[in-house]
Amino acid sequence: MSWRVVLYIFGMALIFVGEQIPADTGIVRWSLVGVGGLAIGSSALWRGLRSRQADESGIETGHRLALVTTLIGAGSLGGYVLSTQSVAEGLGVGGPSSGWRVVWQVIWPIVWLAGTLPLLAIDHAIRQSPVVAPARRFRQALYHGLTAALGLALLFPVNYLASQHETQWSLAHVETVRPGSATHSIVESLETSVHVYAFLPPDSKLNSEVDAYFTSIEGPKLNVHRVDQTASPRLARRLEVEDNGYLVFATTPPGQLKRPEDEGSEASRVWNERIELGKKLDDAEEALETLDQNVQKRLLSLSSGERIAYLTEGHGELTAEGSGRSRSLQGLTQTMEGMGFQIERLGLQKLPEGVPREADVVMIPGPDSPFMDREIEALANFLDRGGALWIALEPEYARKARRNSKDERPLLGGLLERIGVELGDGVLASTDNIVPTSNNKTDRLNLVTNRFSSHPSTATLSKRTRRLFLFAPTSGYLGVSDDTPVETTVTVRSPSSTWVDRNDNLTFDEESGESREARPMVVAAESEADDTDSSQPWRAVVTADATMLSDLGLGNRGNRQFVYDNLNWLIGASALSGTVDSGEDVRIRHTKEGQAIWFYATVVGIPLLILLIGTLYVWRRRQTGGAS
Amino acid sequence: MKQLLLITRRELAAYFQSIWGWSVLASILVVDGLLYNAFAIGGSAKYSTEVLQQFFYFSFGTTVVAGILLTMGLIARERQTGTLVLLDASPLSDWQIVGGKFLSALTFISMLTLATLYMPALIFVNGKVSVGHIAAGYLGLLLVGATTVAIGTFASTLTESQLVAGVVASIISVLLLITWLLARISPPPFDAILSYAAIFNRHFSRTFMQGRIATEDIVYYLSTTFTFLMLSVRWLAARRWT
Q1: From the list B19, B36, B234, which residue is nearest A614 (CB)?
Q2: Which residue in A596, A301, A140, A14 sits closest to B234, CA to CA?
Q3: DSSP state of A392
Q4: B25 to chain A: which residues are within 8 Å by CB?
């Protein structure tokens, strides 16, 4: 780069910096701009002199072309001045709607490029041949510089247009959710046909997603109507829909919906349930992921009304507000609400008075202090009324509480005895079939099992043992009494590698009487109708672990399916059991054991294989002299 | 076209007939695998989409590095060994020379990028991701690869030193990476231009990495690739006189 070009660029840089300084700073700004202009002028003058002094015609042409390009570059500054706010206002074209400034803002950089790049190319050519060179060389340099400048200049309008007319496609959502087998069962069992009104804009890509979901369950029992809210405002008003983007579930067909003039009276109100999707596919990603679960909830709610589940509290149970994932039942309550349950609490004040009549299920999630006699009596009465009871025992908490308390009463009095089960003493441990969470011995308590019976309460799990398993952190085990009129079934067993860790050392000690065997972890009990008394047949599920129902446990898909099927069995809706399809993303983390395989395969195995193939190929080629 | 493909084939063969090409391929896979294991699937439990996004985040970096490594010798080596004169004397146009070399490097980097497919495929073992997300991410990586290769090709035409070419390509790439930072301290309209030029922040992390395809980004990568190729051709043509 010659001094003339350095001076030119230096001048341009000074003007640029000067222009960034606020106008009210006066002397500094104008000094910089002035010196910059002087530098550019000097560069042009010097170039002109060199052109006159050149002895050779080719070199003279080169300098002349360089002078022209310098002047073009300097001329672009005029364009810049015209693009400034103050000049535009002075010319009376500075209004917001005027395109004057925009036009000059586009033109001056292009002119600057068209001057500067050819200047650089010509200057480079002169420096390469400072004494003799054909004029053609400098013309070509000019041509190369101009082409490069115009090519660069083209970047701006092309990208500007692209940003103004941008189109985006989101491919991140998981594949379209399909109805699970449970949804099919619910639709089959519908006694009244349900009408689904899909309020969506006709051009929305959501239409195809919604169609894909409903295609396999659409029929006489489930009618799907595609409606555009803007085209059918009356129908929308009757269903109380004010915009597109909703799925409305109603038992009323379109022709029987109340007329607008009947609106206002309570009788005219159409009982409906709805799911908010959004109008665009991008907005609906989250709703689509849980679509199957939400459709089930709406269908169940319309067909049988809302069910009510009571969760006991006041005895150290796990609660929805519990601290930590292993003590919180937030996931369980959400799952149950998704199944159409209304969740109520049954505390120390309410339970002694009796379980409310409307209760469909009562759950006792992991108590660690004994129930009062009146409470146990209320629960027993609930069973006699044909109720459904889920008792989730937590051996570890119960044991700790027992150590710290002098209260030796059994946790649930004679209730477990009545059901025909008892909680064994100690927790189960294993070296296999475990989930490592802390990478120490305590991981031996994190059991997983896929030993399910074909009982209706675990039917889905038993059919999918290769994909679904039950995660039971710190589980106890159950004893089943043979001498009972109740029909009991062990529905889940621990893996055969588990032992009861009697001495709390988390190590298998045969000498201490510990033995490895599969032990009952969950029992389903069912009483038979007895003609001799007035009691109704009841159902109960007892689990030797409550943490499997906590947020920690329900993070596992198998545990959610376990809850789903057991609740359906308890309320006598086993026919509705089945899978829930979900596009929901899942958290993944490789276990220590699994990680080693993936680690060596991805980091060492495949690259090494490629290097080996390459080495062999290169070696063979050298051996054959390149003939291969 | 025939001549262009001839150059492409010759250059591609050069990658595979030397242990250099295979070493680059294996090294990039090792680095990608290490980053994938250490950051994407390692540590705390993450959602599958997060794992995939982190994979594309790291793959962006390895693709840029691979692009520079593969292209720094494309033209510079010819000049260094004196074989560029032979190419100049051949009946090949500058576009054919640059295009053929660019295509060969692009093919190699595409193969390298696609060779990492087994890593996102591993997510399916425990997780659930959209195939579309993977496809969008890979489209982005291929476009990034094309742009980096074009930058590397341009840098390689500037000098006869492969090292200098690599440094120049790295400087250009880093500049494109940090323009969003420069945009923060620049006045209008430069801030908008610099912000738009950010190769990662504006055109990869918000779209391809998240499983989205945007026409704006495709145009950006293709136009940048074309511009650097055009500059390479112009520079190569201008150098014929020396």
Answers
A1: B19
A2: A140
A3: E
A4: 607, 610-611, 614
Q: Is A127 on the interface with B (CB under 8 A)?
A: no
Q: Which residues pair with residue A549 across a beta bridge?
A: none
- Across the range A102-126, mean pLDDT stands at 89
Model confidence pLDDT, tens digit, residues B100-159: 999 999 999 999 999 899 888 888 776 777 888 899 999 999 999 999 999 999 999 988
**Which of 94-123 (A) contact B at CB < 8 A?**
105, 121
> By mean pLDDT, which of A352-356, A405-409, A421-425, A482-486 is the weakest?
A405-409
Query: Which residue range forms the structural domain that includes residue B208?
Result: 2-239
How far is residue A249's CA from residue A301's CA, in Å, rounded to a whole number?
Answer: 10
Q: Tell me if A197 sits within 8 A of A240, measured CB to CB.
A: no
Q: Which residue has the higher pLDDT, A258 or B239?
A: B239
Res A278: pLDDT: 86
Q: How many contacts, defined by CB atoms under 8 Å, are there between A and B?
A: 184
Q: Per the structure block, which two tokens stand in for A16?
A: 């640029």
Q: Which residue(s) pair with A488 in the sheet?
A: A525
Return the H-helix or E-strand segment holding B196: helix B190-197
Closest CB to B45: pick one of A168, A587, A617.
A587
Per the CB < 8 Å rule, is A171 touching B212? yes
Q: What is the DSSP string of A531-594?
A: TTSSPPP-EEEEES-SGGGSHHHHTSHHHHHHHHHHHHHHTT-GGG-S--------EE---HHH
User: Would the CB atoms of B242 and A598 count as touching at under 8 Å?
Assistant: no
Please choose, from the candidates B209, B223, B84, the residue with its C-alpha nearest in 3D space to the C-alpha of residue B158. B84
Number of structural domains found in chain B? 1
Q: Compute the half-sphere exposure of residue A402: CA atoms within 13 Å on the CB side of its CA.
A: 14
> Could you report the per-residue pLDDT of A155-195, keeping only the tens digit for each?
888 988 888 888 878 777 655 567 887 788 888 888 778 88
Q: pLDDT tens digits for A337-350?
A: 877 788 999 988 88
Q: Does A591 touch chain B (CB under 8 A)?
A: no
Chain B contact set for A20 (CB, 8 A):
187
